[in-house]
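Give me the fold.
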Amino acid sequence: MRPSGDHPTALPHLPPASAGRSDFVLAGVALVAAIVLGLLLAREAPRAASARAMTGQVTELVGGARRRAADNVVWHTLRLGDSVHDGDAVFTGPDAAARVRLTSGGELTLEPSSLVVLTGLAGEVELRRGGLVARASEGGLRAVAASGAVMIGETGSVHLRQNPGEPAVVEVLGGSARLVTTLGEKTLTENQAGGFDRAGNLAPATTRPARLTAPESGARLFFDRNPTVPLTWQAEAGQTLVLQLGRQATFETLLIVTRVDAVAGRYLFEAPGEGVYWWRLCDAQGAPQSDARHFMVLREAAPVPIYPQAGDAVYVPPGQAMTFLWSAVPAADHYHLEVATSRDFSPLLYQRECASTELRVDEPWPEGNYHWRVRASATPERHPPFSIPTSFSLLRAPPLGVPEPIDEEIRVDGR
C-alpha cells in the first residue's frame, strides 16, 4: 500500500523462522500498523487537498487532462468545473487543452502537451513544459518559466512557451509584460517577442512585422461537417509572407506551406478533420514574422438519451419528480432540455438549462404520451444539434403488479 507521499511505506523487517512465537506476533502487529497508517494517509490526502487554498476553476476542457495535488503522487482525471488548489499540477495531453479561471481574476489557456503548477500565490503560475496563454486581470499576473518571471500588466495577455532544454519564449498579445531574471529585466509591448534562458540571459526584444487577428489562440471551433476556418492577420504592404500550418507547436510536420497576400490578410483553411492546429506567418526563409497560435476543430455531437428511452412507460406518482438522463458531449458545460406533447415540439411544454447530464423535473403533467430531446447549450458561435426525439408514456397510477412506493419516513426493519 502506497500513501500519498513520494515514497512507499517501509514494511517492518520480519524475523527469521527460528525466532520465537512472541517475535512473530510483534512483527505481525507492526505490519498491520504500517498498513493501517498507509490507508489513513491515503484517506487524508483528499481532505488535505480540499483544505488548501483554491486558486482557480476549470471552465473549458477539450481532450484528456490530469491533475495532481502537491501532497500526492497520484494523477487524477481533470473534469470540467473542477477546482485547482495551491500547488496543484495540471497536465494536458497531446490533443487536449484547458482553460482555468483564476480566483485572482486572471485566466489561463493551457496548450496541448503542457505542464503547469498553480503556486497558490495570488495570480501566479509556473510553466514547467509546453505553452499557455495568460490573461491578467486588473491586479496583473505573474508567470514563471525557466529561471525568470513574466510580469503581465493589468488586462494584458501573453503567450509563453517553455520546451525542455530551450529558452523560454514570450510573445505579448496585448498590453505589456516585464521579463525579470537574476541578470536583469526587459519590458515588452504588444506584438513584441522576447525571452530568457536558464542562465537568466535576456533575448533582444523583436517586433513581429505581422499580427495574427483570428481565430484567437486556443479558440474552439465547432462544426457539423468538414469545416472551413478563416485565418486573418494584419501586415504592411510589400511583405513576403508564407503561411505555415501543422498539427504540432514545433511546426516540424506541416500540412500547409503557401505564400499569402500580406495586404489581403485572409486565408481559408479547409480542415481535414477534428483536432488541434497550429499556424503562423514566416518570411521566405522560414523565419517567424508573427506569433504562433493554435485552435481546436471539434465536431458537433448530440447527446444520447439514456432515460427514459423510446417506448418506456414511466411511473411517477403525483408529487414526485421525474428524472431525465443523457450522455455527455465533449466541451459542453451546459445542456438544454425540451419536453412536448407533439413530436415536432410545437408548442413546447417544458424547457430548462442545466449544468449536468441529469435533470429532475417536478411538474404536474397528466398521464399521456410525451416527447423529449436535449442538446448542448447554444451560443452565438455554436449551434449544436438536438438528440433524436424520444417518446415515452407517463403513468401517474401504478401499473398492474407494481406496488405503491414506501414512504421514506417509514421504517421497515422493525427498529
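Confidence is low (pLDDT under 50) at residues 1-20, 40-50, 407-415.
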